[in-house]
Amino acid sequence: MVKVGILGLGRYLPSKKLTNSDLEKMVDTSDEWIRTRTGIKERRIAALHEKTSDLATKAALSALRDAKISAEKIDLIVVATISPDSNFPSMACKVQKAIRAHKAAAFDVSAACSGYLFALTTAKQYIQTGLAKRALVIAAERISGLIDWKNRDTCVLFGDGAGACVLGPVKSGGILADFLQAFGAQGDLMQVIAPEARSPFHPAKAAYTQLPYVQMKGQELFKVAVNSMADAVEKVLKKAKIKKTQVDWIVPHQANDRIISAVANKLGVPKKKIFINIDKYGNMSAASIAVALYEAKKSKKIKKGDKVVLVTFGAGLVSAANLIKW
Ligand code: UT7
Description:
Elements lengths: L3 E9 L4 E3 H5 L6 H8 L3 E3 L7 H16 L8 E5 L10 H9 L5 E5 L5 H14 L6 E7 L10 H4 L5 E9 L4 E9 L7 E3 L21 E3 L1 H23 L8 E4 L4 H11 L10 H4 L5 H12 L8 E8 L3 E8 L1
Parallel strand pairs: 4-5, 4-6, 11-12
Antiparallel strand pairs: 1-7, 2-3, 6-7, 8-13, 9-10, 12-13
Bound molecules: oxa(dethia)-CoA (UT7).
């Protein structure tokens, strides 16, 4: 079977920073609480005119430049997002139009913080079965639009951003193994409910204007996040018959630095082998791993021949892991 690997990486981050001290002026919180409980110092917030599809397009162009491949050579675009500009058209179709990838099929994947890895595995299958040759996989979130900026439980945690990669056939290495899992029964631990008040029959007319916000049960999620991410790493390594000691880097979803430490402890992996950038961006949902992978590669931490595990967990609930040989 054809080997599939990453031919280029890209990212786009809005320039506007929202620091912990900015948040101190908005809700009853403190820089100390946010740093010690989450590891976050600041996050990026999209400008008012910037849409999710704009972030996705800029990350896509950055990945195409890195791969030295023109948009006409792309025959599949998959965008992972839970914060699209609109229910339809899909973000993937908007990116296709913006970058003029005329030959590409395009669709979105909804798997919350696990979206990038679900999209990566999906695109890999298309290439392996011959339905596509080169794919753009993008994770883009403008999650600031789903946050109640008066609720300190959630507003300190998230940020906006986008990451992307070009996938295609490689001679050696590439994506060696994938593991995807869902725990739908626990879906109520983190959700954005479209309010039933949107019904024309709802008696409270004022509720028509209510916005759907992220709601989550933080402590319960914390435990499931640690267990499911550690389990996903074990499962993907078992599939590839690779030992933990052979892994050079783990690039995890960046939801909380304490979750990452707990996963490292559970796996018995030293934290210096784990790439962390949550301090700069907070939790960017699907975009977190995409941006972290870009930064791990561009800072030359990931080198040719390295074995890298991507691992994530998110609303759904869903978890996933991929093992990549660079
Ligand atoms: O992307 C994947 C999905 N998301 C996650 O996986 C998130 C997982 N959960 C977490 O990361 C953590 O549970 C949180 C960061 C959300 C919360 O940390 P925690 O250590 O579990 O805090 P807690 O919810 O137990 O709250 C501890 C205290 C409470 O006060 P009392 O009851 O002890 O007086 C909260 O009211 O901290 C309070 N608190 C805050 N204080 C200052 C909650 N949020 C804040 C805040 N600033 N922003």
